[in-house]
Amino acid sequence: MFKEVNGLPGHVLVIHAVVVLVPLLALVTVAFGAFPRWRPRLDWAVVGLAVVTPILAWVATESGEELEEALESRGYPPEGLAKIHEHSEYGETLLWFTFGLAVVALLLVVSTKGFARLQSLPRWVPLALTVVAAVLAVFALIYVYLTGDSGAKMVWDGIV
């Protein structure tokens, strides 16, 4: 399903969106939680990023697995497959941190919107969600770096 787009591996195209959107989701979510005055301006961005980013991260993971299977079936060297497996593990971990951050981001927006049913929530809930979001954001950023770095080294090591 995600193998190719116009003859190019789909993974190569989708990863660029993930590399941009995961850090953006992290930054906007933490800013939303940390700066209450910015919330009316950032709520739509947080919700949009929290919906789109995990979907694209999942597509990147699935397309990467299909690319890995294609390379393996074509007899790619075992050393290269070991590097691909390491990259794949980083990507899987990034996917879970991205999903977690997205869920917390949506909960943070809902908890600060002042809905009638949520009026009885303790005042510390948005603060706690902001702290959780900040921790998840740090881990998501670390894994964006590790995943991207390992993938780029496989492709570009020794070329430039």
In brief:
The chain is 80% helix and 2% strand. It has 160 residues and is an all-alpha fold.
Task: Give structural notes.
The mean pLDDT is 91. A hairpin with a 2-residue loop joins strand 1 (4-5) and strand 2 (8-9). Helix content is 80%, strand content 2%. The chain has one domain (4-154). The chain has a two-stranded antiparallel ribbon with strand order 1-2. By secondary structure, the protein is mainly α. The chain has four helices and two strands.
- How far do the termini sit from each other? 32 Å
The tally of domains stands at 1
Give the number of helices.
4
Largest sheet: 2 strands, antiparallel
Query: In which order are the strands of the major sheet placed?
Result: 1-2
Q: What is the strand content?
A: under 5%
User: Fraction of residues in helices?
Assistant: over 70%
Note the topology.
Layout: E1 4-5, E2 8-9, H1 10-34, H2 39-73, H3 78-112, H4 124-156
Antiparallel strand pairs: 1-2
